[in-house]
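re: the backbone from monday

yeah here it is again, tokenized this time
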């Protein structure tokens, strides 16, 4: 009897997963998009090549282009909340917004480095990593950055934190 329940449960699960599908939504751009980040079911941003940043307020049904005014490729975007966000890319470009992406301020630190990932550790502490082992830390929500790299010279692609103390 127990085996019959397991088989029945498995077949129901299988039937649901077989019919699960992705729905393609139009972003309105033909440029490559490299990262997407949502703070809730409706509000999200994406970034990509040639400095493009798009924002949605309806779960991706429609997208509106935000201005970063640069033609560098953007690799990663992350927001702490609905207002505060950072996007990083080539030429060590870090863009910061405090108004949900309506305007972006450029923090360009080293034009020869590619930045790959961002992680908000706390509302004010932000870590960025990139090629050649670069690690940058901001303790004021992205206004100022300090290089905390050590002798590690491999490309750093991703950041993950268990909590604000362990990453």
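seq for it, each position gets an aa:
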């Amino acid at each position: 009897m127990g085996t019959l329940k397991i088989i029945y449960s498995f077949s129901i699960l299988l039937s649901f997963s077989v019919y699960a599908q992705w729905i393609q939504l139009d972003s309105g751009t033909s440029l490559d998009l490299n990262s997407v980040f949502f703070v809730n079911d409706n509000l999200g941003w994406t970034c990509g090549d040639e400095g493009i940043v798009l924002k949605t307020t309806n779960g991706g049904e429609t997208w509106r282009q935000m201005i970063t005014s640069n033609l560098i490729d953007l690799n990663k975007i992350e927001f702490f909340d609905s207002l505060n966000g950072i996007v990083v890319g080539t030429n060590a470009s870090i863009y910061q917004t405090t108004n949900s992406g309506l305007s972006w301020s450029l923090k360009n630190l080293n034009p020869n480095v590619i930045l790959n990932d961002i992680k908000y550790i706390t509302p004010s502490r932000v870590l960025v990593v990139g090629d050649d082992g670069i690690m940058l830390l901001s303790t004021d929500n992205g206004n100022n950055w300090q290089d905390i790299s050590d002798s590690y010279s491999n490309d750093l692609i991703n950041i993950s934190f268990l909590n604000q103390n362990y990453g």
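The chain is about 10% helix and 35% strand. Residues 1-15 have pLDDT under 50 and may be disordered.
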